């Protein structure tokens, strides 16, 4: 179990690091060094709305969620994110990606290929919200 936790945590870190490096306006919802679940990456992406991003990601075979797990399916930003001090505008672009025991490097590679292009596409078509 410990080996799986380390492997999944490393995948999560690579996924987050790749998105932070390639997409302007992305930030983690928790500070560096905060203990967290190894299989969950939660980010906010400025200049996009989560629901539109989720639609594009699903078209490319990437399943994701908006908000925190306890706000799944809600149309408003998560009350958990608000309690954490995440501003409403930022929370509107929240993205939760989950990794599990069957996840591997190929899954992270796929996400790193799909998410930046989907964000760019949304920002291109929304010049007001697209400023990062």
The overall pLDDT, averaged over residues, is: 83
Spatial order of the strands in the main sheet?
Answer: 1-2-3
Strand content is 5-15%
| Low-pLDDT runs | none
The proportion of residues forming helix, as a percent range, comes to 40-55%
Write a brief caption for the model.
The protein has 132 residues and is mainly alpha-helical.
Structure explained in plain terms:
With 132 residues, this protein is mainly alpha-helical. The protein has 5 helices and 3 strands. Strands 1-2-3 form a 3-stranded antiparallel β-sheet, covered by helices on one side. α2 packs across α5. The model has no long low-confidence stretch (mean pLDDT 83).
Question: Mind sketching the topology for me?
Answer:
Blueprint: H1 2-22, E1 26-28, E2 40-45, H2 50-59, H3 79-83, H4 88-91, E3 94-98, H5 105-124
Antiparallel strand pairs: 1-2, 2-3
Question: Top keywords for this entry?
Answer:
mainly alpha, 3-stranded antiparallel sheet, 3 strands, 132 residues, 11% strand, globular
């Amino acid at each position: 179990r410990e080996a799986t936790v380390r492997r999944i945590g490393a995948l999560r870190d690579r996924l987050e690091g790749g998105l932070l490096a390639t997409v302007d306006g992305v930030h983690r919802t928790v500070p560096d060094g905060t203990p967290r679940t190894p299989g969950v990456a939660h980010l906010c992406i400025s200049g996009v709305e989560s629901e539109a991003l989720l639609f594009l990601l699903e078209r490319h075979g990437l399943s994701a969620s908006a908000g925190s797990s306890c706000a799944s399916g809600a149309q408003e930003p998560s009350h958990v994110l608000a309690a954490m001090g995440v501003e409403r505008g930022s929370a509107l672009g929240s993205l939760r990606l989950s990794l599990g025991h069957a996840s591997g490097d190929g899954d992270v590679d796929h996400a790193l290929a799909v998410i930046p292009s989907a964000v760019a596409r949304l920002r291109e078509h929304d010049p007001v919200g697209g400023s990062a």
